[in-house]
Design a protein that fits this description.
Length: 350
């Protein structure tokens, strides 16, 4: 793990003084899940994670700061000006602007929006969660993003800046249950609870939705009550195994008795979807698992796959016309040739 480096100082005063809620960690199996807010393929460093001793304590305990590995406090820093995108679809509920870059960075005051700098708070559609993005570049937030405006997952929101109470360019992100509210624990699609110094690669894309191995869909996904609790065999949870889609995954070594199921129902967006499976690959993985994709309107399709190839690719399970209100199932079954891995199912609107 990389050594911690000087980053943002305490963002005291960032949260509204009227907010009296403590930071909250919700139930482990239902923590919200969301994408890292950069273009797909962008590699970023979590320069400060949860419980970071620089500023992530109290109301900001469950926060993340992103850069690209440089502490240089200038516009030459590679993260400065990097585009930021909506990690989920929702409504803009608050905007902070007017804070200069590379000025008024030494404290929390009216000149830097009480330490937050420039940023947005976006509420997921019909949900209790807000994403709060801070320290953005002055003038980069589009004028079209007024309060109340709807944004789609993957829409452009502005650029990373050096505004607010901060020591070098970076993006601050946390989830809350109110506008600019105290942080709540959450996981990224790309990495489960990464630590300070870890690196991650964004998988964010419009109309890409994820069902993980813990009965969760990413925030804003048009998926109703995903459920994958039905398994045959014992699937043990492993965390921090490296970046696949997520770096927590489940593994069974019970041969052809190993079966893991994902179930989901679309709530909107009928259309053709490409379906994929992801996991962390090792040479000990089963070389001949069988995936089954099923729905009463699409029948059954069986795909054989060598899970050792998860070291290099995700499993392409095919293209399907999926309809709202229909229950679909994806299942993986082992052959006995090695360990069976179950991480996430990805569906992408074509």
């Amino acid at each position: 793990m990389n050594a911690w480096r000087v980053l943002s100082l305490a963002i005291l005063g960032l949260l509204l003084s009227s907010q009296a809620w403590a930071s909250t960690r919700v139930g482990l199996d239902r923590n919200p899940l969301t994408f890292i807010p950069f273009q797909e393929g962008t590699r970023v460093r979590i320069v400060q994670g949860n419980h970071g001793h620089f500023s992530h304590s109290g109301n900001l305990t469950y926060s993340y700061d992103f850069d690209m590995g440089s502490d240089e406090n200038s516009s030459s820093n590679p993260i400065f000006g990097e585009p930021v995108y909506a990690p989920f679809s929702g409504y803009v509920r608050a905007i902070k602007t007017g804070a200069p870059d590379f000025s008024c960075n030494s404290g929390s005051s009216s000149c830097n929006n009480n330490g937050a700098g420039n940023g947005l708070s976006i509420q997921v559609e019909g949900g209790e969660y807000f994403v709060n993005l801070m320290h953005m570049q002055e003038g980069s937030i589009p004028s079209s993003l007024s309060v109340g405006r709807w944004v789609e997952q993957g829409d452009y929101l502005g650029n990373v800046g050096q505004s607010g109470h901060s020591s070098h360019p970076h993006l601050h992100m946390h989830l809350s249950t109110s506008v600019w509210g105290p942080s709540v624990f959450f996981d990224f699609v790309e990495a489960a609870n990464p630590d300070s110094g870890d690196w991650a690669i964004s998988q964010l894309a419009p109309n890409r939705y994820v069902l993980d191995n813990d009965r969760r869909a990413n925030l804003g996904a048009p998926i109703d009550s995903p459920n994958n609790s039905y398994t045959s065999g014992t699937f043990i949870l492993y965390r921090r195994g490296g970046l696949a889609l997520g770096d927590d995954y489940r593994v069974s070594t019970e041969g052809d008795d190993s079966r893991f199921y994902w179930f989901f129902t679309l709530t909107e967006l009928d259309g053709y979807y490409n379906v994929y499976a992801t996991c962390r690959g090792f040479s000990s993985r089963d070389p001949d698992v069988q995936y089954r994709v099923w729905g009463r309107d699409i029948g059954s399709r069986y795909i054989d796959y060598d899970q050792r190839n998860f070291r290099y690719e995700r499993a392409d399970l095919g293209r399907y016309g999926l309809n709202t209100g229909t229950r679909y199932q994806v299942r993986v079954t082992g052959s006995g040739g090695g360990s069976v891995c179950a991480d996430a199912i990805v569906i992408e609107l074509d």
